[in-house]
Amino acid sequence: xTVMSQPHEVRRQEMAxxxxxxxxxxxxxxxxxxxxxxxxDPDLFYLPPETISLYGTPLWEQMTHAQRVELSRQEAANMxxxxxxxxxxxxxxxxxxxxxxxxxxxxxxxxxTEIGDETxxxxxxxxxxxxxxxxxxxxxxxxxxTVQRLPSLYKGLLLWGAALCGEELLDDLQRKYARHPDLQPxxxxxxxxxxxxxxxHIRYAREGVLRRLAHSRWYERRLxxxxxxxAAFVLRRIFxxxxxxxxxxxxxxxxxxxARANEPVNAIxxxxxxxxxxxxxxxxxxxxxxxxxxxRYGFLE
Length: 301
Ligand SMILES: [Fe+2]
Ligand SMILES: [Fe+2]
Known about the structure:
The protein is mostly helical. Helix content is 73%, strand content 0%. It starts with 6 loop residues before the first helix and ends in a 5-residue tail after the last helix.
């Protein structure tokens, strides 16, 4: 039997074909699909207030409305900046895998289409940071060095698992952001575009996880099961971070303590993780170490 005649390979190519069709019908170009010059209302939040790390805490109660809006702007800029490097590493993972794959396959063509989506997202996120009047959150040299190592870890199940951890959890939150009535319109537009295009990536990554699970060696499954919890460490910093509080002129230690203990906001994050957590549990992809990490960084009770 040739590789292509195996049923799972046929299904994979058919799915890639469908996803390429979807990309052709529904893709966006932020250069024309976002109104970059529209005026921004200084009273509107850049993230829904109830999702902001300090919402409802004693520190929040002491802040003026303008300070709260500024915190939402900084948290949005932090999230967008980190999303840029995360998408960078996933693209590198896909490109590296491609060196071993058949360039005529539809699967490779879809991976290239997805890389195209992600490069457009990186432009969109970078442009949004400057459009909302913030400075980007850049990686330190040591962080960049560490992040540079990630694509060499992204192989097989680990690549698909990492993609899902980044994409599914943020997707759930971004759907809430996109629908929120009191958000800056520019943030709603960005989130709507991202949610629409990421839906394809999530389908592709879920299929990738299931396919690799069926054809991987025990040690690959073991690694993916135990290492997906590292994503919790990375993702926590998307939601609250010392540098954000420093830029807002807050007492950093106190802000970190109050954010960590902010149960209603933590509950929103846990809810966003639930779908992925259940998926991982169902397919045996949640190991003890990972579960501990997800719990430690506030994504599990
Ligand atoms: Fe993206
Ligand atoms: Fe994506």
